[in-house]
Write a structure and sequence with these properties.
It is a single chain. The strands form 7 sheets. Strands 12, 13, 14, 15 and 16 form a 5-stranded antiparallel β-sheet that branches. Strands 4-5-6-7 form a 4-stranded antiparallel β-sheet, with no helix packed on it. It has about 325 residues and is mainly β. The protein is globular. The two termini are about 15 Å apart. Helix content is about 0%, strand content about 45%.
Length: about 325
């Protein structure tokens, strides 16, 4: 599923197609997305994207069954991220100078603010999407504790049921974090011309090196396949096989990576990338979990456009 803007009419349309390019179907015209990212629930019932209303960039949800749209926020929002079972959605909101972590049911009901930086004692750092734990019981984000000097950015683990927030005291500042398994976090750090990918045990408070990367990453965003077999980092687009620690890199900068770019079995992913030849164009690409290119029909979208998402069937 992806969004493309017609270069003549400038109308943004939500599309669905098979990964071989067959059965291309236009679902609906939508408010033009303002960030290159969409989220989608299992079966493709709800699609989430950041749109524009006046001076705000709120989160919208499109119901593919009812063919209706609604706004899920009244302020600027970003990084809509469905839970592993796709029964909930998490995102960040910005109200004035305060950033919040918000969740809701897939249809937008049951809105709950998990962290509000204006009164929680935590200042959130938004580099990438909120990371759901494999069982969907917790969300990991990054932020600093109010009053800490210097302001060290650390992983914050939020319990969905209790809304309690725990600070993971990693030995270094962390800009973006993900889950390697139910009790292990993974993140990258950069020093000079080298980046290091670390794992961190929540239970033992110990850090280990998974891989060292040269050249250094220019973006700390990270994603982990649903099978927990592969770690992907952005800019340059880098693939790490967890079992073998082997690394492969594509000559790609500023790719949009997120959890629903993965197929359900974790064997491949799709991503959107702005092409060098056309400054205002993005093209969709498809690769295996180890970074090997696979055929995907060239789909370009001009202007504001959205990365592709796999629709996982029930």
């Amino acid at each position: 599923m992806f969004v493309a803007r017609d270069p003549q009419t400038r109308v943004s349309t939500l599309y669905r197609m098979n990964s071989d390019g067959s059965e291309l179907t236009a679902l609906t015209a939508i408010t033009a997305p303002t960030t290159p990212r969409i989220g989608v629930t299992i079966g493709g019932r709800y699609v989430y994207y950041t749109g524009k209303t006046g001076s705000e960039l709120p989160l919208f949800a499109f119901d593919a069954e009812m063919r209706t749209q609604r706004s899920l926020s009244d302020v600027t929002a970003a990084f809509p991220t469905p839970s592993p079972r796709a029964d909930r959605i998490a995102w960040f909101e910005v109200r004035g100078s305060a950033t919040s972590l918000v969740i809701a049911n897939a249809d937008g009901s049951g809105r709950t603010v998990l962290i509000d930086s204006s009164n929680s004692g935590f200042s959130l750092r938004v580099v990438g999407a909120p990371a759901w734990s494999p069982d969907g019981s917790r969300i990991a984000v990054c932020g600093s504790v109010a009053g800490s000097s210097p302001a060290i950015v650390l992983p914050l683990l939020v319990d969905i049921a209790t809304r309690a927030t725990t600070v993971a005291t990693t030995p270094r500042s962390v800009q973006h974090v993900h889950w390697l398994d139910a009790n292990t976090l993974v993140y990258a750090s950069t020093a000079g011309s080298k980046s290091t990918v670390h794992s961190y045990s929540i239970a033992t408070n110990l850090e280990a090196i998974l891989s060292e990367l040269v050249p250094a990453l220019t973006n700390s965003a990270i994603s982990v396949s649903p099978t927990r077999e592969t770690i992907v980092l952005a800019s340059p687009l880098t693939f790490i096989d967890v079992a073998t620690r082997s690394v492969s890199t594509l000559g790609v900068a500023d790719a949009i990576i997120h959890d629903h770019m993965w197929s359900a079995d974790g064997s491949e992913l799709v991503y959107g990338l702005r092409t060098a030849s056309q400054l205002y164009s993005e093209r969709l690409f498809r690769v295996t979990r180890l970074g090997n290119a696979k055929p995907l029909p060239h789909v370009d979208s001009l202007g504001s456009s959205s990365a592709a998402c796999y629709v996982r069937m029930p």
